[in-house]
Amino acid sequence: MTTFWSLFITVIVVATLIGCAALVIWCSKDLKGIADGEDMGHEYDGIRELNNPLPKWWSYMFWATIVFGVVYLALYPGLGNYKGLFGWQSSAQNVSNIEESRDLLANSQGIDQYARELNAANAVFGETFRKLAYKPGTDELLDITEIAKNPEAVKVGQRLFIQNCAQCHGSDARGQSGFPNLTDSAWLYGGEPETIKATLLHGRVGNMPAWLAAFGEDGVSEVSAYALSLSGRKVNAEEAAKGKARFVVCAACHGTDGKGNPAFGAPDLTDNIWLFGGSRKAVEDTVRYGRQGVMPAWKDILDEDKIQLLSAYVWQLGNPQN
Fold first, then answer.
1. Does residue 38 contact residue 111 with C-beta atoms inside 8 Å?
2. What is the mean pLDDT of residues 167-193?
3. Residue list, annotated binding site
């Protein structure tokens, strides 16, 4: 945090505490010299205001919260860059890469609560992950399809999914606009166990170029019509025929039959499954402006045994019969 923002936050917090204390003092004083219980001279709807002091319990409670705030800010972070007398921090705030984060986790001195909790969790559950992901007594990982047959391993993989993947794919793994549904049979890069693992390990970067400049508005409409027709949608036949002629440039990724290419992550256009929406407008927007998608790499975030369990869970979502 820069010095300016540190000072800005400090001034706001300190001024608020002082203001609260001043307000309590001001409300506790008789500034008009009117005795307790005397009429204040105000009346509304037949109700007159009397000069009654603040309840003692209310004043004491307010002072207690102010004192608590001062003590808390002295002991813990809260005033800009001030670290507090305890030097406590919720997590490592200054790390800039995964390597630094791992070093801090390995060498935590107890002031980083997140690191302490993560190390404690690894100590308790690390062996559980290992037993489910590795062959007994070896350093060889179990086959993903074998792990998927173990209900306990699948449950652990599901928890890992909810913790790390549900933000994009949803807790039920059915995805949302721009994020694939993992419960069907449509896989952009292939649904084989090792391919799913490779996706998790290294991530994916998808790029559908924009074609407005090359096609023009008429061309966008024609290519969209043809793309929709590939999945059996009703479109203008003449428009789709013109789009088919233009589709030759799209075939480089999607194939001449429109069935896609896992090598490029190019989707199958014949299955009526649309990553960014299957309405006419959504498809036209895809052709017109292009689409970009990023699946992050998890190899530096999750251990290999967790990746194996997560891969098994994802694989069995689309292969429940196995």
1. no
2. 94
3. 165, 168-169, 208, 250, 253-254, 295
Q: Is the dihedral of CA 261, 194, 158, 166 positive or negative?
A: negative
Judged by DSSP in three states, 211 sits in coil
Please give the Cα distance from 108 to 118 (Å, whole number): 10
pLDDT greater than 80 at residue 101: no
Q: Strand (E) positions, the chain?
A: 39-44, 47-50, 204-208, 291-295
Amino acid 218 reads: D
Q: How many CA atoms lie within 13 A of 277 on its CB side?
A: 11
SS3 for 43? strand
Same fold for the pair 126-203+297-318 and 205-295: yes
Tens of pLDDT, residues 31-69: 667 777 788 878 888 888 888 888 889 999 999 999 999
How far is Cα of residue 28 from the mean position of the Cα atoms in its chain? Answer: 48
pTM over 0.85: no
Among candidates 1, 307, 2, which has minimal Cα distance to 156?
A: 307
Domain ranges in the chain?
126-203+297-318, 205-295
Binding-site members for heme c are 165, 168-169, 208, 250, 253-254, 295
Q: Given this structure, which CATH class describes domain 205-295?
A: mainly alpha
User: CATH: 3.60.21.10, 3.30.420.40, 1.10.760.10, 3.40.50.970. Which one for 126-203+297-318?
Assistant: 1.10.760.10
Contacts of 217 (CB under 8 A, 6+ apart): 288
Q: SS3 helix, strand, coil % of the chain, rounded to 5?
A: 50, 10, 40
For residue 84, name the pLDDT band (cuts at 50, 70, 90): confident
